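Exam review. A common question shows you a sequence with its structure tokens and asks you to describe the fold in words. Practice with the pair below. Do the first one on your own.
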Amino acid sequence: MPAKIPATVVTGFLGAGKTTLIRHMLENAGGKRIALIVNEFGDVGVDGEILKGCGDAACSDDDIMELSNGCICCTVADEFIPTMEKLLARPEPPDHIVIETSGLALPQPLVRAFGWPEIATRVTVDGVITVLDGKAVEEGLFAHSPEAVNAQRAADENLDHETPLSELFEDQIAAADMIVVNKADLMADADALVSDLRMKARPGVQVVKSTMGALPLDVLLGQGAAAESDLESRHELHHHHHHDDDDDHHDHEHGHDEFETFVLALGEIPDPAAYAGRLAQVIRDHSILRLKGFAAVAGKPMRLTIQAVGPRIDHYFDRPFAPEEPRETRLVVIGMAGLDRATISKALEPR
């Protein structure tokens, strides 16, 4: 059976920066074919037009589909499932599907929809990304404009859930595999909010800062969470809530300076299981976001593939080493700027 197509759900309140984050993702797709489902409703599909206008092949009109008949979690059967079926029926299905929810959508019912028989065997939820307006949360508002959230609620005739922003915020945190504290450049103390969210979130949930949603593709995609199989740990406070669409406003410069990547070239490892345990500890100690690569195992002809997303580590033998291929361990480490490379390197030395 072919591998399931990964899908990433991007959720968050109006003005948090979902559209900006996705636009940046598409502009830096690096050849990966990403299909996008935008849940926007109202008279004008602003988010869809913003994304279609990014001037990149990854933003082709055919790969951007808009759901405009109301909040996605209230129209799963009528709109979302048929749209997914259309994507999956294409002669060349996408490499990855990204779903931008409206600011009113509950993430949990949408994740639950991936268990529907029409799509369950074809797609998996790679991860749920919750985007926060860091400045608004720091000020106790949750959304940039609570008034705009209420206006969006009033405009959606299909909306069947009414919940305070504070409770909806808790649902977004409960569903997340990654929390993006956006607009960090405007905050008084972004690190304090990051620390607080790490304590509130489930174990293993990554919390990162961003400005204008500028995050590396390797950080956003490839989480491998299979969220549809893990709904119990994502329990919502209530069965009904809301959010709102997002604008991209801000004129601040942005880049990837907040992140760093480096490669470690190491020797053969003696024991894959023991080494995976050490990797997990180093990841926890240094808040490493991603770690991936290959290892040579002493006495084994096969190459060991290693993939780590936060503390979750997968390792398996994928193929024999080629005759001229060096038997070494090479690991790519991705994290926030300021990683202690020397300490990490020493801790990961085979022994």
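Now try the second one, then compare your answer with the model answer below.
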Amino acid sequence: MNKLMIKLIKKYQALKPENRRKWCKYHPTCSNYAIGVYQKFNFFKATLLAFWRILRCNPFSKGGYDPVPLTKKEKRELKNSLKESSNLAPQIDEEINN
């Protein structure tokens, strides 16, 4: 189902005029964001995230950088790598001071 949604979004992107990208408040654009969430998450969560992003894209929003969220696995890996790097910091300081 996700592959079908990605194909539909890419067809939409091909049909929309090139100059519309200048008007987008967010980076990445809403359609690129939707492709990203459909690549990372299951159909229901991706649809919810894409819908929420489209709702936030209105004249009253600030816009700006809004990346595709991390999956639970990516968050866990990032947390573990940060722990490992913080555990190595005292060892590196000792080696530098010696």
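Model answer, second protein: The chain has two domains: 1-67, 69-98. Residues 5 and 48 are 13 Å apart (CA to CA). Full marks require stating both points clearly.
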